[in-house]
Every structure is written in structure tokens, then in C-alpha cells.
Amino acid sequence: MKLHMLWLVFVLIVVETNATKQGKNATIPALIVFGDSIMDTGNNNNLPTLLKCNFPPYGKDFISGLATGRFSDGRVPSDLIAEKLGLAKTLPAYMNRNLKPKDLLKGVTFASGGTGYDPLTAKIMSVISVWDQLTYFKEYISKIKKNFGEEKAQNILDNSFFVVVSSSNDLAHTYLAQSHRYDRTSYANFLADSAVKFVRELHKLGARKIGVFSAVPVGCVPLQRTVFGGIFTRGCNKPLNNMAKQFNSRLSPALDSLDKELDGIILYIDVYDTLFDMIQHPKRYGFVVADRGCCGIGSLAISYMCNSLNPFTCSNSSAYIFWDSYHPTERAYQVIVDKLLDKYLSKVI
Ligand SMILES: *[C@@H]1O[C@H](CO)[C@@H](O)[C@H](O)[C@H]1NC(C)=O
Ligand SMILES: *[C@@H]1O[C@H](CO)[C@@H](O)[C@H](O)[C@H]1NC(C)=O
């Protein structure tokens, strides 16, 4: 009898904790994004960096065909997730000088192409480090307070979906500059620990629903195939993919325990397997080409090498997984977001 009572109390506590953890089915007021080119909608446009793409043929499939600074032919995942959440078709870049206070209300992206968790990555590329993005986020919140009041700011902190996407540039580029200090495994671990530190900082600033993307199979992007995959075979760069997997295998359990430790919801969002499967079996997803980008001759071009002077850009980017030699097309992003959001978004809505 006594044992039964204890058991019941235990079950009630578990049910109660789960209910609090999931929160009310509040609508998401805003999407707030940190990270790199996957999520950048134009933050690099006014920076003194070579890593920008606010010129054609970037944006050729964007609404009205404009090159906005998105590293793709069309929209990028920040936009696609904002659309899924019913917020807007596009997510503004925080550094856009034309933003008015009301444009901030449904969220912004602080992401900067070329950045990473390693502070050295942003330094090499002259872009905004994820750590500086947190400083801009503080400024964002104070702008919301100033223009719309404390309560609105609190609602945005409590209920918005916060997304963090980084690591590709650290793994693919900065590691080469750091290899005297780290071996592959310890560098991947250092990055995963940095990601966890980032989430803690973001949580301290008030964010409560945080999703962190895994690393992607960055060894399979066309550029890596061209440089490291063999002249004729152009296979994936396996050691680099293994580093990405090491990062993920350390990040995933660390975020799970953070989810238990902190209030709110901390999600590890696995993108590796989905993108890898798309690259291995493009036809299953309606793609024709997986090992070259649409822009230029598709094997090396990125940023200024993919501009209107090159005559080779493909006409149908929907048939390609990659837009340039590093970044997916809007259609590939849409496939990933559709697949992921069904799985993960229900946990934060
Ligand atoms: C929660 O909100 C979503 C999105 O508005 C809706 O589809 C879903 O049915 C709601 N769930 C519950 C349990 O009310
Ligand atoms: C473009 O490619 C997609 C995907 O392979 C295909 O479904 C579509 O028919 C193609 N469009 C044209 C105009 O060829």
C-alpha cells in the first residue's frame, strides 16, 4: 500500500515536470538566429570582408530575383523556418540599416557567413563571431524594451525559438590553422564544448527554447571533393566528415544534459544524416546533381568566384543539391527544413 502511494507520487511528479517542461502551447512570437552563412540573410553586406554574395547570380531564384546577401540561389533556412512558424516568408538580417523597430518584432538573424565557434574563424574571415552576435542580441533586446516595453521583451525571451548553426567553417578551414595546437578529435571536442558554452550564455541572456544544429557532412561539399577527393574520383573528404561526427557525438549528449539542467527546452537538431542521405541518393529527393554546384563550373566557385562574369551557371538550380561549391540550394534547404521541422518543431510550439 505504502509502496503504491510512493509510486503514484513519483508518477505525478514526472507528469508535472514534463508538463512544465513543454510549457503552454504558446505561439512562437519570433525566430532569433545565430550562426554562419547557412543562416545569414545579409549581415555581411556592409562588412569589410570578401565573404559576401550580394551580387548576381546569387538570389536568382529569390523573391523578385534579388541578390540580398543570402549565400544561395533563393531563401535560406532562417527564412524557411520563419515561414514554417507562420511568422514571415523571410527573416531580416539584424545589420540591415533599413530595419525599423517594428521589423524586429518577429525576430532577426545575427548570423554572419564565414563565422564559427572558434573566435579565430571570424577573425581570419573579418566577419562577426558568434560571441559578438550575442552582444548584438543584447542590443536587440534593449531596442525591443525601449520601443515596445518590458513585457514584450519578456514574451520574446520566454517564447521565441532560438536557433544556432555553426561549426562548418571551423572544421573545414580554421582547423588547418589550429592543427599545431589540436589533433582532429580534440579540435572537434573544443568546438562542441564552445557550442555548449554558447547555449549557456544565450540561456543566461533569457532565451528558453533553443535548438542547436549538428555539424553537416562538410567533407562532401563540392569544394572539399575538388581539393581533397582525388582528381578523378572526387569523393567526400572522410577525415573531415569524421571530425563533424566527432563534434556531433560530443554535442548531442552534452545538450541533452543541459536540457535537464536548465529551465526551458534545449534541442540537438541532427542535420548530418539527412544531408548525407540526400548527397548519397539525390534521386530519391528529386535532385539530379549532388557533387557539383549550380554556379560556375560548380567545383570551386564561391562568393566572388561565383558572379555574373561566369557564363556557366546552371539554369535549373532545383536539380542541384548545391548552389555554389559550398552552400546548398533553396530547394535542398527546403527538403531539410521540411524533414526536420516535422520532427523537432512540435517540441517547441
Ligand atoms: C499547438 O499549436 C499548434 C500550432 O498552432 C497546433 O497545430 C497544435 O494543434 C496545438 N496543439 C495543442 C495540443 O493545442
Ligand atoms: C528542374 O529540376 C527539377 C528537379 O529535378 C525538376 O522537377 C524540374 O522539372 C526541372 N525544371 C525544368 C524547367 O527543367
CATH class of the domain at 27-270 equals Alpha Beta
Question: How does CATH name the architecture of the domain at 27-270?
Answer: 3-Layer(aba) Sandwich
Strand content: 5-15%
Question: What structural class results from the helix and strand content?
Answer: alpha/beta
Q: Name the CATH superfamily assignment of the domain at 27-270.
A: SGNH hydrolase
The fold-level CATH name of the domain at 27-270 is Rossmann fold
The amount of helix comes to: 40-55%
Runs in which pLDDT lies below 50 for 5 or more consecutive residues are 13-25
Number of E strands: 6
* Strand adjacency order, main sheet: 1-2-3-4
Radius of gyration of CA atoms, rounded to a whole number? 21 Å
Task: Give me the number of helical elements.
Answer: 11
Keywords: Glycoprotein, Hydrolase, Lipid degradation, Lipid metabolism, Secreted, Signal
Subcellular location: Secreted
GO cellular component, one term: extracellular region
GO molecular function, one term: lipase activity
Describe this structure in words.
Keywords: Glycoprotein, Hydrolase, Lipid degradation, Lipid metabolism, Secreted, Signal. The chain is an alpha/beta fold and 349 residues long. 44% of the residues lie in helices and 8% in strands. It is built from eleven helices and six strands. It has a four-stranded parallel β-sheet, sandwiched between helices. The chain has a two-stranded parallel ribbon with strand order 5-6. Helix 4 (130-148) packs across helix 5 (150-159), helix 6 crosses helix 7 and helix 7 (184-204) packs parallel to helix 9. Mean pLDDT is 91; it is low at 13-25. Bound molecules: 2-acetamido-2-deoxy-beta-D-glucopyranose (2 copies). Residues 25, 349 line the site of one 2-acetamido-2-deoxy-beta-D-glucopyranose.
